[in-house]
Design a protein that fits this description.
Keywords: Membrane, Signal. One of its GO terms (molecular function) is acid phosphatase activity. This is 834_t:CDS:1. The chain contains 5 helices and no strands. It has helices at about 1-10, 15-30, 45-60, 65-85, 100-110. It is elongated, with a radius of gyration of 21 Å.
């Protein structure tokens, strides 16, 4: 955390910690290293950053947001209509395979 204070004092970004956390996650996932970005954050800052991003994703992507309506609801509607069509004998489709990005799956989860 002392290294962070030294770096932060030279920068004027108000919300620097959450973005440092994003870089920490990237370096941990891709390179399996915590000595680059993660070492600049204290355990408390890591937890608070995770909470920050959880809230950010929730309010941007959760039920009722316009983006959720455009992406998540369309997929669920297609899925439900496909299952109903099959159950009631109105469809000959045996499989409806979809490919999605993790971002799209978050819409369905929330």
């Amino acid at each position: 955390a002392m290294r962070f204070i030294q770096v932060y004092s030279r920068l004027s970004y108000q919300h620097l910690v959450p973005f440092m956390f994003s870089n920490c996650q990237f370096w941990l996932t891709v390179y399996n290293r915590t000595d680059a970005w993660c070492s600049l954050l204290s355990p408390k800052e890591l937890l608070l950053s995770r909470y920050y991003w959880d809230l950010d994703f929730y309010y941007r992507l959760s039920y009722g947001s316009p983006l959720n309506l455009q992406i998540g609801c369309r997929y669920i509607t297609q899925l439900v209509n496909g299952v109903k069509g099959h159950l009631y004998g109105n469809s000959t489709v045996k499989a409806d395979i979809k490919n999605a990005h993790a971002f799209s799956m978050m819409m369905i989860r929330m």
